[in-house]
Design brief:
This protein is of the alpha/beta class and about 500 residues long. The protein has two domains: about 220 residues, YjeF N-terminal domain (Rossmann fold); about 270 residues, UDP-N-acetylmuramoyl-L-alanine:D-glutamate ligase (3-Layer(aba) Sandwich), CATH 3.40.1190. It has 18 helices and 19 strands. The strands form two sheets. A twelve-stranded mixed β-sheet has the order 8-1-10-19-18-17-16-15-14-11-12-13, with helices on both faces. A seven-stranded parallel β-sheet has the order 4-3-2-5-6-7-9, with helices on one face. α3 packs parallel to α4, α8 crosses α16 and α13 crosses α15. GO terms for molecular function: ADP-dependent NAD(P)H-hydrate dehydratase activity; ATP binding; metal ion binding; NAD(P)HX epimerase activity. Belongs to the NnrD/CARKD family. Its EC number is 4.2.1.136, 5.1.99.6. It comes from Kushneria marisflavi. Keywords: ATP-binding, Isomerase, Lyase, Metal-binding, Multifunctional enzyme, NAD, NADP, Nucleotide-binding, Potassium.
């Protein structure tokens, strides 16, 4: 795992900071590097910016803001600091930063609600609250955040947008909506999941003087998946490869009127390289399935008995899309559950799992709930799931075993409690808010599973390809109107990184 892909909790980052200081790098030197890195990003992104307004709180996050102000003033920019904490009360490195700003000639004013941010301000810098913030945002910070968000000016957040929980990605009230977040030392877990994508904007990592060895030797929480990892997980095939080497996937589902979901799952699995794809579905869906994808083998499923032999022959089974929760779906679910072998359970399959198989654990299955389904499986509210998505996914893993894919912005893949078994995808876009996206994701993951990837790696790589394909499609033709079936051709390209 690349050091710059590791994800850390706020506490772990604080430990990294302290360890670096113990290794001989002064704390104020780190603060100067942070301010310099942030200013470099500001001038890179807004090269014509001349007027900066910097909101400073207490602690080192506020200190970072004072350093940015001092360095920007030295560059000849017009800088104004609005302080929400008396500058003279700051301690340690933050107090040194205040002195630096004053010596540089920066204007420092106390903020109060009546202050309006001038329309001519080119960039606002958020240095209000750092990664240690946990509780609900209180006055006057909540009002200052609202003022920043009303301004209409571009916003740069230092380390993390104020009002965002650094570990969970939950909002602690109204959070600063940044266009750019320059995060220091290491990537914080909460920047990439939950509601974070709504407020972080572009995220740039500035590692400062922290040695890579310090990062790799320290504890972390998980891994941010980068596109480059597909080069290692999806190698080129050997010249002698044939379909028998590439697995046989059985897709089960599609009660009358709901055949599209299973057809999309099966077709996407074929596009990602499964050697054979069978579809067991209601008879009414056989003609459209074969019309859509004649390469798949389609079978009528009247009941569970009809699919027992198919289940036994398959390398893995995907069950759930369009399955329904009635007697027909229950019978098919029973046939799949009593057999051995890898399984991917999605959609209605998850409801049937909770209703009839609560407490059953398997190491070789993959469960792919969205937040509503996760809340159903955990018997809690969607809000509780979204408040701490990692803990929700971990709780599902403890209950059911296997690999959990908690879908949504910043999709999480959890296969255990070690950092090497937790992945977040930073890819995907709002165009994916349309029907069938979860069905094609299931097809992608299941296809990689039958091709020999472990359940954890199949889930992680499938999620990664899904997000990348959606971004490729949106880049070509925009987000609105993006259909789930549009992703297959883009996913195929992403699944052949060495081609």
């Amino acid at each position: 795992m690349a050091a710059n892909a590791r994800l850390y909790s706020a506490e772990q980052v604080q430990a990294l900071d302290q360890r670096t200081i113990e290794q001989g790098v002064p704390g104020f030197a780190l603060m100067m590097q942070a301010g310099s890195a942030a200013l470099d990003e500001i001038t890179r992104r807004w090269p014509r910016a001349q007027r900066l307004c910097i909101f400073c709180g207490s602690g080192n996050n506020g200190g970072d803001g004072y350093v940015v102000a001092a360095l920007a003033h030295r560059l000849g920019l017009n800088v104004r600091i609005l302080a929400l904490h008396a500058p003279d009360q700051l301690k340690g490195e933050a107090a040194d930063a205040v002195q630096l700003a004053r010596e540089s000639g920066v204007s420092i004013d106390d903020w109060h609600p009546e202050i309006e941010i001038p329309s001519e301000i080119d960039v606002i810098v958020d240095a209000l609250l750092g990664t240690g913030t946990r509780g609900e945002i209180r006055s006057p910070f909540d009002r200052a955040i609202a003022s920043i968000n009303r301004s209409g000016a571009p916003v740069v957040a230092l380390d993390i947008p104020s009002g965002l929980h650094a570990d969970t990605g939950a909002l602690l009230g109204e959070a600063v909506k940044a266009d750019l977040t320059v995060t220091f030392i290491a990537r914080k877990f909460g920047l990439y999941t939950g509601q974070a994508p709504d407020v972080t904007g572009e995220i740039v990592l500035a590692p400062l003087a922290v040695a890579e060895s310090t990062l790799t030797e320290s504890g972390h929480v998980g891994e941010l998946m980068l596109a480059e990892r597909l080069q290692d997980t999806l190698p080129r095939r050997q010249p002698t490869t044939y379909k028998g080497h590439c697995g046989h996937l059985l897709v089960v589902g599609g009660q009358p009127g709901f055949g599209g979901s299973t057809i999309m799952s099966a077709e996407t699995a074929a596009r990602l390289g499964a050697g054979l794809v069978s579809l067991a579905t209601a008879s009414v869906h056989i003609p459209p399935a074969l019309t859509r994808c004649p390469e798949m083998m389609v079978h009528e499923a009247r009941n569970g008995l009809d699919i027992e032999a198919l289940v036994d022959k398959a390398t893995a089974v995907l069950i759930g899309p369009g399955l329904g929760q009635g007697a027909w779906g229950q019978g098919l679910m029973q046939a799949v559950m009593k057999a051995e072998g890898p399984r991917l359970v999605d959609a209605d399959g998850l409801h049937l799992l909770a209703a009839g198989y609560a407490g059953e654990r398997r190491d070789d299955w993959i469960l792919t709930p969205h937040p509503g389904e996760a809340a159903m499986l955990l018997d809690c509210s969607v809000a509780e799931v979204q408040a701490d998505r990692y803990q929700a996914a971990l709780s599902l893993h403890r209950l059911y075993g296997g690999v959990i894919v908690l879908k949504g912005a910043g999709t999480l893949v959890v296969g255990g409690e070690s950092p090497e078994e937790c992945f977040i995808s930073p890819f995907g876009n709002p165009g994916m808010a349309s029907g069938g996206m979860g069905d094609v994701l299931g097809g992608m993951i299941a296809s990689l599973l039958v091709q020999g990837l472990s359940p954890l790696e199949a889930a992680a790589s499938g999620v990664l390809i899904h997000g990348l394909a959606a971004d490729d499609a949106a880049r070509d033709q925009g987000e609105r109107g993006l259909l789930a079936s549009d992703l297959a051709c883009y996913a195929r390209r992403r699944a052949n990184p060495g081609g």
